[in-house]
Write a structure and sequence with these properties.
Four copies of one chain form a homotetramer.
Chain A (H helix, E strand, L loop, with lengths): L8 E2 L5 H13 L2 H13 L6 E6 L3 H12 L3 E6 L7 H9 L3 E4 L5 H12 L5 E4 L3 H8 L10 E4 L2 H12 L7 E3 L4 H4 L2 H18 L7 E5 L3 H12 L3 E5 L3 H9 L3 E2 L2 H7 L2 E4 L9 H4 L6 E5 L9 H7 L2 E6 L2 E5 L5 E5 L5 H4 L6 H21 L7 E3 L2 H14 L9 H8 L6
Parallel strand pairs in A: 1-4, 2-3, 2-5, 3-4, 5-6, 6-7, 7-16, 8-9, 8-11, 9-10, 11-12, 12-15
Antiparallel strand pairs in A: 13-14, 14-15
Helix pairs in contact in A: 1-3, 1-4, 2-3, 2-16, 3-16, 5-6, 9-10, 16-17
Chain lengths: ~425, ~425, ~425, ~425
């Protein structure tokens, strides 16, 4: 690392004070990370390491940054999504001495410039969210491979990309699939995305969900969370899927399951959460009801084919912030929220802090794990060790004042034995 | 009415364009009112009548104002709650020629001055929301009694006050309890307040509801809606009640029922919806958990005893808009949302338009009813006629594309007969 | 009353011991009735009165009979439904000295003969369930009018028939609509019928409800309970209605609402709860899926047009008890449960005891009320007095160990006042 | 195999006709197995193989037996649980030429004698349910190891025992963990056990679940299903767990989580589903409410410490079939259902056919897999191949008339690519 690095690039440093207050508010809901931070201050397990964290720049990731610094690391932060950056948080972090490269609403060119500026710090560890940094490193910035020990990955989408890299023998360092930790994906995607997607839709539209037909595309953890919360708000929920086992689960959970072609005709609101592209496509816009609303809760803004919709439209009207209406030649209007980007981050505040608490505790502990053992690991995609999972869950329960049972010695013996019969 | 009237008093006329767009957006979700408006334009059933509408000045009431004007009336609008006024809507209405007296955040003195300025128009009809206008008329402005034909009342609280007036033989004109219409209270309080209260809590706090213990005070229609939606978001819900029948319903609906004294010890979030005062009082603050959040979904800001809390507190910190922390001498913090005012109106956008659609269709048709028959009615509190209810429900279903069964002649005959046996 | 009365007519007296045990089991879940019985033993409020109770002869009504006898009355029991009689209970009651006329599966002729034998006792009070006794009295047995003080009615259907009688000025004595008590219809129909209908369907068919499309005809209290529980078991629920307000509530509660003609095509299981006739008719059988199952949870077995189905069928096969398959000419099979009779009584055990506890506490207290004031009341249909409702709810809560809040003097004063403002 | 085998041992051959009807009824809900059976008749993939199937002898396993025979095998059937045998089904199978060793209520000695008689057939394949046959083979009947190709295992408990055997290098042949197939454990345990446990509790007790506090011990797939359905019936559900991740999921799903010691004080009904022993133990009985009901939904009857309860009790009363009350010295009564055995099998009819359909399709296809490749597989525990899972789910959806989306070539390309970015 040399002197040429850009120290930071953010929107407005005067927002720092507001950002600081909001970061403190989020900290209240992040007891696990607070506990780790206290331990890190004593143990300094990341002493001297530079970490590029490509994350949604929010109050919650700010708390991760403080924890990493408490562990002795120098975090360098860039945005993982142009629309999710909270400019006041970015300001607060810069005011507190962090390197931050993130401006809400930045264009694609700036987005990749920011990633490159972050990589100029020659990181030892990479915290990634969608694998854009890792992909950039492998494609364009192989110069930093000499310092990188390994990376962690936050999202399903990113893990898929990492696995593709590993399968093609292209992955150059070990990567921890933080997304696959139980205390991450079981909670973050289901409870976090579930609630925050509903929150975002309400903020954008103030629509009454009760009595509406909501079509959820994809019945993975995110889709399950969204379907469950939409039903919890009184909506009639339809699920679309490509996987027969998941589709059958959706049926058994009491949802209607239809192909998108049929669902498109009856939905009032559509939410995509598949990790795939064009799950809502031209053929679906052609049959949607007048006034149908579409939005995306998947990582990338490719799930809704907005290019096709834009070509079809004769007029586009912005009604409220994040609410754009595409008027079709036959007079029908299709309403798109947040330009098809991750709606919970673009319109609401992303996952609630108490969910991020566990995800980021995983990130922090995965970084420590890589710092300690990463140099010995062959380049591949690794799960988060199970003991990290249990530790985080136990800390979380304790922070909620909840005690659980422990196995008695008699019960432990029973579980390991095979000699008991009917 | 003479020339001395103040034409309007609002915050910022330049917001009119934004307000207009948002009013149009809301109109999409108000198909019943749109249909009535079209009929009113033909029939002009309120020709020449002045109507003082003391309402939450929002995009939805704006649509009511347009419908009333289409019917031939001159609506005069004042705010029914100092915190709920949407200044851009007020601006749009003034720009369109309405008399509006409403500024967001106005103090109590301004609030009553606005009511008085509205009454200076010497209305024929009063649309009230909490009975503040009717109370003011009876106490201070008996001069307008010569023009007033009657009033309509939107809220449970207001109806209680009107009934008290009628019981004491003080009511000077007929009042229609719009709140009691099935298409109002069955939908507005349950589905509207239910969703918008959750919406407001999320906007104010970004709290993860899943896994939280939410205490709902009161199991009337509002409380039921809030409890149902809180559970729908994954919360563990406790209900408090004073009525044994309602308490038993809450139990049977699967909620825990506790006295507030016990609920206070375990709740993470408290929502009051009782219509009564001090349901959360000093004794409850004394035992709440550190960080407990309290808010109010009832009409008046008396349900939480904030005076007591302020006296107990050694410090007050505003964390985010609408989020104020009261620090107690023992270090515990109690967080109050929106100063204890109606949280869904103060923090979110009030009821979604599609709920207000039915409430305001009731208001509009109740005004027509009073215009046609009000002068013949003795001063008393009256229900909305049942045929109005059925008409509104039918229009709403049609607007959603939903058909229902009709009784066959054979079935109608069966229902009226008593001669069938086992 | 003379010596000519038949003392009893039941199936098998040797079942008495089994019946006694089951009655004792039910008593555990009937704490309100137990409390009343203890009070009745001291106060003897029905001393010397003969009461014809036309009820489902079950363990729960047996407990009512004991309570009435404890109050000093002589209960005379006949069945209100030929399929619901539990022969062991009838035996236990006879063994304990009661007059009982009920045999499971009795034909229509026997059914009415039993009613007449019961009436031979010249009752002072009638407890009715569907108004068959009251109808018989008015049509065929006007001789008993000289002793009858009044009657109570358990069901919605019966109340409709009584109101029809009253409207035509034919009702000869006062009748208490026990069905309309809040502690009856809010609990009995919703929670009792809801659970026991599901219970009956499972016992009859062992069908997996998860993933099935269940069509509920009627969204009154019974229909709501059934829809809620079917959804609670994982079914996808469709509601049919003729009332637009109820239909709209069903939509807002998240159900699909369709006309029966469309629902018939997609349902796997149909449950009628409308109180009307032929809600499932020939036209619906014509389009149902092969293997569709139909059953009835309404009072009378007229809701499904079984005559039409029998005419259409080329073969009928009984698969399991209560499960009859009608094979249509095109090879499709329609499965009918319990011959279209009240499925929860015919197949399962009727309402659980803890629901009946409140209904029958209402019956007992309504009898006391009639004994005390019935002779002064004009012939009409009356509600259960509100204080009875509150008393029963309070007793029930106490029996569950649940305490609730009480209004403070300050709160009571607030509620009656109209002088508080914003 | 020689002539000394006992051909069958069942309770009553005259029940065959009734059994045959019920087997046919179950077949209607088993479309996947029906399809496989048709294919097997053409392909005969198990020609000449003897299969010992130790299963719950029910209408559903009867259908599995027919499918296996259609494939060319000779199934030999013994009971996997003394209380679950349906004697009419056993009779129908014998009447149709199968070897069956099963009598409802047989004692432990008979149970193992039946297993041994079945093993006398010298099977090539073993279908096991709890690993009792495999354990017996390894311990006492090593003589049959010469013919056995491999086994399949239906339950979680059995898989745990097999893994223990494999870990100790004692397993003598390959075993397929059918329980771990997604189309088995995701459906069978969650939806099947969930519903049938509720069904059994209602049949045994006729208890109103609404308003009751239900304690579910264990939040694995079975526990989740039971908790979900109990809540769906209106109960207030408390979960106990020893695993912090599962406990946290239960909290986030809106349940209260308590240690059993505390839950024991407040529960009305307890259901164990942990797979462990004595999860309800002496210390819990000591604090339970009078009238508390306990039952078990786990595989073995060890989860409730009935020996301890029997020692504590001063009296035992059987109230209804399967309902036994233990009276404690202080007068409190604890009610035990079905002697602590698997309540859904002992009291109700086990899993509904449509769930078993998928489990047994897995069993049948796992047998075919072992027949084709088992001789080449080292002795170990193997998962069901993923393509079997997808095939079964797809067949099931088709049988329900449900179509789902398919990936477009564009989407397939997207999913495998790692080169797409933000």
């Amino acid at each position: 690392m040399n002197g040429r690095v850009i120290p930071y690039d953010i929107a407005d440093l005067t927002l720092a004070e507001q950002g600081r207050k909001r970061i403190a508010w989020a900290a209240r809901e992040m007891p696990v990370l607070r506990l780790l931070r206290e331990r890190f201050e004593r143990e300094r397990p990341l002493e001297g390491l530079r970490i590029v964290a490509c994350v949604h720049v929010t109050t919650e990731t700010a708390n991760l940054a403080y924890a990493l610094r408490a562990a002795g690391a120098t975090p360098v932060i860039c945005a993982s999504n142009p629309l999710s950056t909270q400019d006041d948080v970015a300001a607060a972090l810069v005011a507190d001495g962090f390197h931050v490269y993130a401006r809400r609403g930045e264009d694609a060119e700036t987005y990749y410039r920011h990633i490159n500026w972050a990589l100029d710090h020659e990181p030892h560890l990479i915290i990634d969210d969608g694998a854009d940094v890792v992909t950039t490193v492998h494609r364009d910035r192989r110069d930093v491979l000499q310092t990188v020990i390994g990376s962690t990955e936050e999202t399903t989408t990113g893990v898929i990309r990492l696995r593709a890299l590993a399968r093609d023998d292209l992955l150059a360092f070990p990567a921890i699939a933080v997304n696959d930790a139980m205390t991450k994906h079981l909670f973050d995607n289901r409870y976090g995305t579930g609630q925050s997607t509903i929150d975002a839709i309400l903020r954008a539209t103030n629509l009454l969900l009760a009595g509406k037909t909501v079509v959820v595309a994809g019945y993975g953890w995110c889709g399950r969370g969204i379907a469950l919360r939409a039903r919890g708000m009184g909506a009639h929920v339809i699920v679309t899927e490509v996987d027969p086992v998941r589709a059958l689960e959706a049926v058994m959970d009491g949802y209607r399951v239809l192909p998108m072609r049929e669902a498109a005709r009856v939905g009032d609101l559509f939410v995509t959460a598949t990790g795939n592209l064009h799950v809502i496509d031209r053929e679906h816009f052609l049959v949607m009801k007048n006034g149908a609303i579409v939005c995306n809760a998947g990582h990338f803004n490719v799930e809704i084919n907005l290019e096709a919709l834009a070509e079809m439209a004769v007029e586009r009207i912005v009604h409220r912030p994040f609410v754009e209406e595409y008027v079709l030649p036959d007079g029908r209007a299709i309403v798109v929220l947040a330009e098809g980007r991750l709606v919970n981050l673009a319109v609401a505040e992303g996952h609630p802090a108490s969910v991020m608490d566990m995800s980021f505790a995983n990130q922090a502990l995965a970084c420590v794990y890589l710092a300690q053992r990463g140099r010995q690991l062959p380049a591949d995609v690794y799960p988060v060790p199970a003991e990290i999972d249990r530790e985080i869950a136990q800390l979380k329960l304790e922070s909620m004042g909840i005690a659980i049972d422990r196995l008695t010695p008699e019960q432990e013996a029973y579980l390991v034995s095979w000699q008991h019969g009917t």
